[in-house]
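Hey, sorry to bother you again with one of my protein questions. I've been staring at a protein lately and its backbone has me curious. I owe you a coffee for this, so here goes:
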Amino acid sequence: MSDTNTSGEIQPSDATEASAPDEQLKSAPADRETEGPLDESEANPVRPYVDLGGVKILPREGLQLRLEVEEGSQRVVAVGLDYAGSTLQVQPFAAPRTSGLWHEIREQIAEQIAKQGGTTRLSVGPFGPELLAEIPATTPGQPDSTRLARFIGVDGPRWFLRGVIAGDGAVDQEAASKIEELFRSVVVVRGKTPMPPRDLIPLHMPKTAAAADDMPSTPGA
């Protein structure tokens, strides 16, 4: 499975830590512990989060939540957030305690997009290094159409949170600020269960009936 897919774990790279030890450093904003994305231990426990297992989402006006489900296993593999003309897909993964995943994962994403006939450009955003991607789109009647996306990532304590921004947030600065703030508000729940690095932290339907009614499920890619 490629890193651009939404279903399942991030696949390991052929590269080794010994060949590029500097690329194993954590990548995160300097103020991550206070401004997010937060670890469950850092979040305010009284805030009305929607509990989706590996992540908690803070409701806000105009926000639509979607769960992306793997067709065969019916496993939830990603959370989709539609907000202010943009879409944000988030996935939490287990990670080593002292080293990060984003530098290596970012290179893998670029390689996979290139194999699909797309292009990527490395940029630096509010979360650190990110990829600006132009990806071939399967639009009926438009064989040469493409879609733009921003791949962002943050290494936290024993977890890695990946985000994919599309829509207005990929091309407009004002819209980008709104969707970036939404990504900041995500809380990652790593849990205490031992997990291999790169395994998807389990996600599930919200526990409250009201939240579940407002959250459609869509098949995963």
Remarks:
- DSSP finds four helices and twelve strands in the chain.
- The first strand starts at residue 38 and ends at 39.
